[in-house]
Amino acid sequence: FFFSPQEIVSGESEEESNGVNLMEFSDEILLHILSYVPCTDLVLNVRRTCRKLATLCLDKSLTHTVLLQKDYKVNKDKVKQLMRDIGKEIYQLNMAGCYWLPSSTIDHVTQCKNLVKLNLSGCHVTSLRLSKMLSTLQHLRSLAIDVNPGFDAGQLSSECKATLSRVSELKQTLYTPSYGVVPCCTSLEKLLLYFEILDRSREGFMLSGQLMVGESNVPHYQNLRVFYARLAPGYVNQEVVRLYLAVLSDRTPENLHAFLISAPGSFVETGATKNLLDSMARNVRLDALQLPKAWINGSGLLQHLKFNNPFYFSFSRCTLSGGHLIQRVINGGKDLKSLTSLNLSGCVHCLAPESLFRKAEDDIDSSILESLVVSCCNLRHLNLSAAHHHSSESIGNHLCQLLSRLKHLLSLALPVCSITDVAANVEKPPTASNLVPQTFGRKVRIGIQTYPKNLAGQANQKIESSVFWALMGSLRFLETLEIIGSSFSSAMPRNEPAIRNSLPPCVRAQSVGDSEVAAISQLTYLQSLTLAQLPNILTGSGLISIGMQCQHLRTLSLANLGMMGKVVYMSALMDMLKHCKCLRDLRLEQPYFCAGAQFFQALSHCSSLQRLCIVSRSGTLQSDAVMSFMANCLEVIMCHMFMGESLTVCKNLQQSIVRSFQADRPALNVVIFPLLHEDLTEVIRDVPMRHLDEITLFKSRVAEEPPNLWW
Prior knowledge:
Blueprint: H1 5-9, H2 14-17, H3 27-34, H4 39-44, H5 51-56, H6 60-63, E1 65-67, H7 76-86, E2 92-94, E3 117-119, H8 127-134, E4 142-147, H9 158-166, E5 169-174, E6 190-195, E7 226-231, H10 235-250, E8 258-262, H11 271-283, E9 285-290, H12 293-296, H13 301-304, E10 306-314, H14 322-329, E11 341-343, H15 366-375, E12 381-383, H16 399-403, E13 411-415, H17 422-427, H18 432-435, H19 453-463, H20 467-474, E14 480-484, H21 514-519, E15 528-532, H22 541-549, E16 555-559, H23 570-577, E17 585-589, E18 594-595, H24 597-603, E19 611-615, E20 620-621, H25 623-632, E21 638-643, H26 647-661, E22 669-674, H27 680-684, H28 689-696
Parallel strand pairs: 1-2, 2-3, 3-4, 4-5, 5-6, 6-7, 7-8, 8-9, 9-10, 10-11, 11-12, 12-13, 13-14, 14-15, 15-16, 16-17, 17-19, 18-20, 19-21, 21-22
């Protein structure tokens, strides 16, 4: 439903020429159509076209909730006018990730006197501005903010603290060691904490996790129902989160029903955290659980924790065996219909009866997976990535066949080696690509790759009888799919130099290629697709089928497909892109990628594209082609390229893009930098968290957090 204001009111529209006038539709239908239009356009443009639309555009159903979080065209003046026109009608305002708006923009939020929910994550807000704004929002109950260096809780006024005392939901992203506003929120029921504190300052000084004197006010957790903490890598983040947990270890809230801590690497259990977990085992019944792997591995904790109607479990990277999973979590296979989201990413033994004498590459025990599928029949989000889940030759017990029973799945993450047919893997002779070592070869001149058209037909004929084809056919409503090599690691890890060496793919994955990719085209409603480390990609012909059939595709991430010495799927990728009219985010990670004129010409067909990220060791780019692409694709607001070009070439291109397009695209964020440069981590730290977390850094996102954790 996209009509210009002129089409809506003029008599020259196609609808009227066919005897249908849009203005003759009922108010209910028109309101539904208008709900797809950004609020800024409704209030500032559409409502000025005619009297009827002037009334409808101010309907409460359209002004009650205002979402600006991905309205990349909004600027300070539009926000000012919007708040002046409908500020009193707004009850929920989401400005998350509006990093391009100056901090003074927040001053206009004070006109929204009736605000109940406010999300300012990723916005520039000082202590004084926050104090002034919150002093006027007496009805506020839900708040999301960032706490940056220089934040001073002592600058918060008594009126501001009074507002905070009524807030029941708080999301706080910390870029500096601080309690933030937590001690002021005495009625907290939901607390979400994101720790993004770096171990070193920009000047190179080591930071301490100790909080400043005067910030040792005790947080109030007595009414807490949900506690969530996500830690970025670094020891300072671990030190600070322990201070938040110290109060919980003294007295566990009796109404706590969701306790989630996501911590990468090793987060060692201490006496205080052990006391906290023991107290939880005695006093609460949980509905959602996620703990650092060191807190679960080797302990009998899960045997003692009690669950009510669990909807989310994450045992990511734990050594939990399938036997323990069934006995202690799924209660011996009892009914767990309430569970909708399960993350077993990196849980290498979760489908085996025990882990003591088992190798990670051994076959799974299909009876464990079958118990899981039967008990958790309403799963909507399942992550089994970052592990070797090899099916045995038993007929009817393949992982794909068992997963096909989960008819409600909306998102799924699998390792590449789990989708191969066992018989085909045994009988199939090695192909040309199998015989090539999966290492980096010498630089190859890349041109348009040709491929025999009958190869795609042969591939499809073979795959239609495979277990993966059947799985894709049974999950028709799947919206997110990730197929990731069990040994894949991105060349761009967080807070570290670029990885220069990659592990070879699993032997079982060697046969996974174009035909399996073609099977994905059955997913008519697919919105997000990630494919990483598929070694047997010969031409990429399956990508074309996906582009033609998956017309709702909005996010595409491809990494290390086929041979590592050259980009064998370039021609197919360009054909695919010509069909991706709804694509908004594209991430490509491939050595020796040539981002030239032909690639960008094909990419220009993606008229909805907003964000582009290319990561390529020894990759090349053509500056003129990039500039032409940016000029043609007016919606693009993020361009990140980490290639093999020189620092001078990268800087000149970045400056040219910013100079040419920043004025018309206020949210424009451009980072073009040599991938293997020693200063890469310093450049990355300045990337807005929204882009960094959602596209620039590679990670599995299925069941990463509980569904609807925040609005």
